[in-house]
Amino acid sequence: VTPLAPGGHVHAPIAYPVTDPSSLDWDVGLGFGLITTAGYVRYTCRSGVWDDGAWVAGSTLPDLHIMATALHYGQACFEGLKAYRHADDKAYVFRPHANHSRMAKSCARALMEAPPLDKFLNAVRTCVARNMAYVPPHDKPGALYVRPFLFGSGPKLGLNESDEYTFIVTCAPVGEYYKAGGKPVKALVCGEHDRAAPKGVGSCKLAGNYAPTLLPAKEAKTQGYPITLYLDPATRTYVDEFATSNFLAATKTKILTPDSNSVLESVTRMSIMQLARDHGFTPETRRIKVSELTEGTADGEPITHIAACGTAVVLTPVYRIDVPETDATGKTTLRRIVAAGWKDMVDADQEPTDAAMDAGESDPLMKLGNELRAIQKGQRPDTHGWLWPE
Ligand code: COI
Asked: What processes in GO biological process is this protein linked to (predicted)?
């Protein structure tokens, strides 16, 4: 590297340090900031042939071509799953086979080489094993978030698929995603932008689906909403999903989640729907009209509770959703929807208090979410065989 101007300042590479695991305070909520771990697992596929994989210390990728298709044309996808330390001091990963299937779907849509299942599982297993010191202790909150990702690393100038793909599994210890720390949050419906196109790629976990949600999310956050909700892009009358996670709603007898070709099917959502069935709820995956949130379902049942669910957010209750509505004069006002189950407890202008939170234990979605967390931590029997290795 030579400076452009004689004696000019040149940006020096940053030596990203590996976090010393003994410096981590497991009692303090870790949040979802990035804590770097010892290293990652990397596989490369050239012209359709996968190598045998390597362990790489640290968190940087020094040999990437600047014309890699991922950097220019967004040929990239990722996954998220979690590993939990059980009382036997071993780490168990939640449903990695489901993440592999979803990654294969993302790869197929963007003409990328999907990693074979054995390499995917081996990368997850090795990444967790070599970063075992970063898996939160069994009796502390949190988990090791595991992030597999795959991208076109080969160079192209024309718009073509890459000849080379890099598949990496990295990880970081995490706590609660939202600052509310598991307490209910309020959501803003994104009125100005769509997350996906009607026949687009919303159901694939492609990297490019996420950057466009940053601006609306930032605007929403400055207005006090930690989470943004997207409606169906064709008619904007049905619920799709949150920027970070899937949408769940509960009535007295049913747990509902949107059927839409533009939502990403979350592994957490599949699991919650199964637990709902186990508890005698009718799980319904169907189109959900925004109007049902206030008027109830066609069979007259009010929607009592709403939540966001996904690997990162686990299950985060949503006590209020504000929907922007524009009148004939072009003036936009916010229509406030407070989930019926929270109505008596929450003064709509206040964040839910701890007392409201305790009262919220009547929330069936929170109950299902707590049961899921207990299964993941090994504190309840894993009757569905979700934890890996079994
Ligand atoms: C996950 O829940 O694992 C995700 O990938 C969502 C991401 C916005 C953190």
From this structure: branched-chain amino acid metabolic process
Q: What ipTM describes this predicted complex?
A: 0.98
Kindly state if the Cβ of 244 falls inside 6 Å of ligand 1: yes
The identity of residue 1, as a single letter, is V
Pocket test for ligand 1, best of 174, 245, 268 (most atoms within 8 A of CB): 245
Q: Which one, of 133, 211, 136, 131, lies nearest residue 176 by Cα? A: 136
C-alpha torsion sign, points 345, 350, 355, 358: positive
Angle among Cα 129, 134, 137 to the nearest 5 degrees reads: 100
Dump the DSSP string for 146-201: EEEEEEE-SB-SSS---SEEEEEEEEEEE--SSTTTTS-EEEEE--S--SS-TTSS
Q: What is the pTM of this model?
A: 0.95
Q: How many Å lie between the centroid of ligand 1 and the Cα of residue 364? A: 23
pLDDT digits (tens, 9 = 90+) for 89-102: 999 999 999 999 99
The verdict on whether omega for the bond into residue 3 sits within 30 degrees of 0, i.e. cis, is no
Q: pLDDT of 240-277, one tens digit each? A: 999 999 999 999 999 999 999 999 999 999 999 999 99
